[in-house]
Amino acid sequence: MSEKDEKIKSLVDMGFSEDGANMAITRCGVDVDLWELVDSISAPQMTEDSHSRNISDHQVTDQCFDSFGGGKKARLMEESKKKRNRYGGRAQGNQPSLDGSHDEPMPLPNPMIGFNLPGYLQPSVTRILPKQDTGPPFFYYENVAQAPKGVWATISRFLYDIQPEFVDSKHLCATARKRGYIHNLPIENRSPLLPMPPKTIFEAFPHYKKWWPSWDLRTQLNCLRTNIASAKLTERIGRALASSDSPPARSVQKYVMNECRKGNLVWIGKNKVAPLEPEEMEYLLGFPKDHTRGLGITERYKSLGNTFQVDTVAYHLSVLKVMFPNGVNVLSLFTGIGGGEVALHRLGIHMKAVVSVEIGKANKRIFRGWWDQTQTGTLIEIDDVKSLTDDTIVSFVSRFGGFDLVIGGSPCNNLAGCNRYNRDGLEGEQSALFYHYFRILNAVKSAMARI
Ligand code: SAH
């Protein structure tokens, strides 16, 4: 793709019209930052209009967008403009780029326990959100904590400057999962799902003790990924151990441990390691047994590798229970296999209606299957976030009387540390879908403000 095509595509992926994107590039040139282009889609006319007609920014923004075929992006633009101003942006000479690459990196806390976690004593965090940012609708956005520099600053800037809550699930269960969550939920009076999940490998899977060598000092598993170690690798490890002394030489131990850590391998026999089974992952992640059963094994690993750690998310969502004793209406973006819904269900929060947007056929099948077996509310399924228009959102808002929760974690393909090939940040093809979360959330907020 030429640079121009790529920029047009990024802008279209963010919800702008192709015409608007083309005009912006004609005006500014193709070499400028994507952020400049976003700005320029409204800026020139805005200055002109506001000087000549002396009308408010709000009206102007709407008019600008009307000239690009509809006023729907206006709210999006206005929000981002406000955000930039609040965040510093150009006014302070700090030119932000859309992928945030000029921003300061967001420091990750150590230990990564978010605002609070059960069993951790720490100074209690208080936060007071401005009235316009509090729910309903409550929103909850998730992505990988270790994203390229500036990504979280950008996500935060778009989501009302709310600071992310970074949590590593290893503080709550036996497996690591470092994630950032931006949400406007209260953070007081949270309660964990009971029973609390096991926190160590042996508590979770006592039978692995039998073959676990004394020099494998792991007590917890690393982050569960979307793919697993090959049979070739586990065979190679077996051969290396078989031809070693007992205990093996340091160098062999080091090699084996390195692979075990990378692949979350467990000891299933003498000199024999293997990846976790999908049902073991389901258990570690807080899903019911066999949740993903019926899919091909590769698909099961993929879906599980991408999903929420249910206990972690449930801890954050638990505050909804007293607020909505009669249940919640949920807009679920990038539903996957339904980590958010499983969390609500396990909390005993009734879902009156869920509008679920998920493109993956296999994920949809799993989610629909779980829903039919466990829920009595209304489920509406939509394939693609890009096809969820503002008008459709307005109609859902009037049908259900608004959404109580907008929940989702957009794809991390271009952010995750292990992806060396197209780790191109928030503007990457998949990760740019974040902007649809932002667009859709704003559309819900505006529609709800009107009713
Ligand atoms: N939170 C989910 C997983 C999110 S992973 C869970 O608990 O399981 C991101 C999801 O976004 C994947 O399931 C992927 O299939 C979906 N996705 C990717 N592109 C999409 C699009 N354009 N519209 C809707 N969903 C999409």
Automatic annotation (TrEMBL):
Gene3D superfamilies: DNA helicase RuvA subunit, C-terminal domain, Vaccinia Virus protein VP39
Principal localisation: nucleus
Domain UBA residues, every copy: 3-33
Domain SAM-dependent MTase DRM-type residues, every copy: 125-451
Cellular component GO terms, alphabetical: nucleus
Alphabetical GO biological process terms: methylation
Entry's Gene Ontology molecular function annotations: DNA (cytosine-5-)-methyltransferase activity; DNA binding
Keywords: DNA-binding, Methyltransferase, Nucleus, Repeat, S-adenosyl-L-methionine, Transferase
InterPro entries per the UniProt record, alphabetical: C5-Methyltransferase, C5_MeTfrase, SAM-dependent_MTases_sf, SAM_MeTfrase_DRM, UBA
SUPFAM superfamilies (alphabetical): S-adenosyl-L-methionine-dependent methyltransferases
Location(s), subcellular: Nucleus
EC number: 2.1.1.37
Location of region: Disordered: 75-106
Top EC class of this enzyme: transferase
Active site per the UniProt annotation: 412
Assigned protein family: Belongs to the class I-like SAM-binding methyltransferase superfamily. C5-methyltransferase family.
PANTHER family: DNA CYTOSINE-5- -METHYLTRANSFERASE 3-RELATED, SAM-DEPENDENT MTASE DRM-TYPE DOMAIN-CONTAINING PROTEIN
Protein name according to UniProt: DNA (cytosine-5-)-methyltransferase
